[in-house]
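Sanity check

After download, print the first record. It should look like this:
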Amino acid sequence: MSFYIYTLAAGIIALLFSAWAAFSTLKKPEGTEKMKEISMAIRAGSKAYLNRQLKTIVVFGIILAIIFFFIKNGPQLDVAFATGAVASYLTAYIGMNVAVRANVRTAKSAEKGTEEAFRTAVIGGSVTGFAAVGFGLIGISLLFIYLTVSNVAILIGFGFGASLISLFARVGGGIYTKAADVGADLVGKTELGLPEDDPRNPAVIADNVGDNVGDCAGMGADVFESYAVTLVAALLIAAGIAKSGHLFSYPLMIAAVGIVASLFSMFFMRARRGNAIRALYAGILSAVVISAILDLVLTYVMKMPLTDYVAVLSGLVLAILIFWITDYYTGNESKPVVKIATAAKGGAGTNVIMGLAVGLRSTWMPVIIVVAAILVSYGVTQSVYGIGIAAVGMLSLAATILTIDSFGPITDNAGGIAEMSGLPSNVRKVTDKLDALGNTTKATTKGYAIGGAALSATALFVAFAQAVGLPVLNVLNPLVTAGIFIGALLPFIFSSFLMEAVGHAATKMVEEVRHQVKTIKGLMQGKAKPDYARAVDIATVNALKSLVVPEVVAILTPIAVGLILGKAALGGLLVGMIPSSFVLALFMANAGGAMDNAKKYIESGNFGGKGSDAHKAAIVGDTLGDPLKDTAGPSLNSMIKVVSTISILLAPIFITYALL
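Expected structure tokens:
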């Protein structure tokens, strides 16, 4: 049990670094009174949304806790469930609360140049990254000590608690951010010809709030969930193979090593001579290399087979490859993005067609490398345990990835604050550069999150098969076939509710912006202020109202299949759902990211620049891409793991009470 000292210490170190990063960020100057005023409005809207969302989460949580109480080991399950939920929510809440304070400080730091602003945003973003891995590793280590190896299956409650919060944060935050963004663009840019983040646009504060509740809080909860359930899945697989030994300690120690590697990677993320993109790549590459070296040492010290190290290495390689592939399809000035921008010269129709084509084609390489990682990890270890530790290897980099992701909304907000505050052109040039880079990092980290969800869900499926006693799944069994079809259908139905919700909420936002433009005298002349609070409230109310149905669909579908059709059909559902969700999420996230950057490519002066016909066409494409990349696509990550964890959690009920 001595290894728990090391995993707990690693988790505590991560939290201490997160606290230091928060303190260092808050020490920096905020700028002018106008900058502070705008930042405060973004902060108030973000905090109000999360507080109102919490009320909805508590209702769902209490209902589920009551259900869990009456199944085997119910009280312990509830403790694990509550621990996972609280840890996930704290990650999202703490990270977002620092991000909404780092934005104005990044804008102020831009006065000193790219390097200073970049470092401010990175340190601010690291609060979320290291809080996630710190809370995750501490929570699981403490629960493991309390539960002991004999009832380690109760840890699935921790994973489900994290999954539930992630689903709410991703779905609600995604609906919020795109309702505001689409509403702001459709009226502000296409009808009024206003630039990005123009203070005359009533939806501009809501748009900036959305960046935080979607890309910061939502992504934080998403990656925390993947991190937690991957560790839980690896431990459950180990429990199915052995009752003691290093099989249990190895995954947790890999996670601890990942924290150390991520800490070292922070030294490499410095934009020397203004080269910000190189700094981010140096950060992720250094994390991979340091992890690979330390994991090799760990494997030797723990006397684990070298084949286990190869499995872990396959996960690390998968992480960097998915990051690179996503950057290729969605990055600034990449060939696919330029292709979409070129198509905008023919109008909105050709722009959208090309964007969807790029999104569809972008799925093949990630699928191939995930398949390769599964085959390598299983092939070298000749055990499903290899798949579990490959997933742990990939997710061990979560602190670095989340740091890079949170960099995105911080720099996006910094650009908005610089624009609305009327800062000098030299400052705006720096914030624009970092904003464009942040848009790319948000896309690449989404690719990482989607790949991590697929690999962790595969490990969860193995754990499910062990829990219900399904060593072999016979696809010729009509119940299994029925489950496969239902599972393949589920992500499409789930995504349809999210797209519809964004469309409905965005329509409300468009109506509100038009109404304010017509009724507030002097608004377009800059002589009167818009009612920002009204737009924020519209996005908040509609997001919280719309997230209930998809949440219920994700939770009740596996329960219904398990109770009516039985464990074999539920196994089929997981088989159909995991690859279907993975590919659909990749398509939507990459198509949306590429169409967004195609618009930005034109805005940088190509094909007529801002205000041209090509630009107007690209805005339409971006309007379609926004809910794909920031709402429906990323939310599938959470749906995959909610369905998987609840299937394992309620497995005893399905075995005992299924009708068929």
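If your output differs, re-run the checksum step. Summary of this record's structure: Residues 425-468 form the longest helix (44 residues).
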